[in-house]
Design brief:
Blueprint lengths: L11 H8 L4 H20 L4 E2 L8 E3 L5 E3 L6 E2 L9 E2 L3 E2 L6 E2 L3 E2 L2 H16 L9 H9 L16 H8 L10 H15 L1
Antiparallel strand pairs: 1-4, 2-3, 5-8, 6-7
Helix pairs in contact: 2-3, 2-6, 3-5
């Protein structure tokens, strides 16, 4: 049995279902909270790759602050080896936000999933919503397809950040601490 803090605000998926597109300042705030959570997991003494980062695993407290939860697929990473990888067969994570890789993954899988969450907060729908979740993720990960970016609410730099997180090459994806720095600049523009 695992006992955790009760988070009365529900999960991000519930909020996105009700609100669809989040206002840009709120989307940036939540993006930064998620990125800080990733950064904490990725850079701690016992670094962790979450492996299933998606709106169902991001919970809101009473003050509407997000926290990363559900570590059912996490892996400890050897922090002495920055590019340490874990063996994996098949796909990693929930179908709607997974990464398709043949054998190896590291904390960059969380960055890949993060871009899908960003997209959904700004566009009001998951990637390739007309496709089944498995097929949509396969389009994004293996065929390098890009959906239309229709929202006019992206702050400067957000679309470029999403593209870098989306890279099919894990080595080209930004590190979580770099993501935090970029999002802090975006958040300051709303203050």
């Amino acid at each position: 049995m695992l006992v955790t803090e009760y988070l009365a605000g529900g999960d991000l998926h519930e909020l996105l279902t009700k609100e669809k597109i989040l206002p840009a300042p709120l989307a940036v705030k939540y993006s930064l909270e998620i990125a800080r959570g990733m950064c904490y997991l990725h850079n701690g003494l016992n670094a962790i790759s979450h492996g299933d980062l998606n709106p169902w695993n991001l919970f809101l407290d009473e003050a509407c602050k997000l926290s990363v939860r559900d570590f059912g697929l996490h892996k400890l990473i050897d922090v002495n080896h920055v590019h340490a990888v874990c063996k994996l067969t098949g796909a990693m994570g929930s179908y709607s936000h997974m990464v398709f890789l043949d054998e190896k993954y590291n904390k960059s899988v969380d960055v890949f999933s993060f871009h899908m969450i960003l997209y959904e907060m700004f566009e009001g729908a998951p990637l390739f919503k007309e496709q089944a979740a498995y097929d949509a993720t396969q389009l994004a990960a293996e065929e390098d397809c890009w959906p239309d970016m229709r929202s006019k609410t992206y702050p400067p730099g957000m679309w470029e950040l999403i593209q870098r997180c989306w890279s099919t090459s894990p080595k080209e994806r930004p590190l979580s601490d770099n993501i935090v720095q970029e999002l802090q600049v975006m958040e300051e523009d709303f203050l």
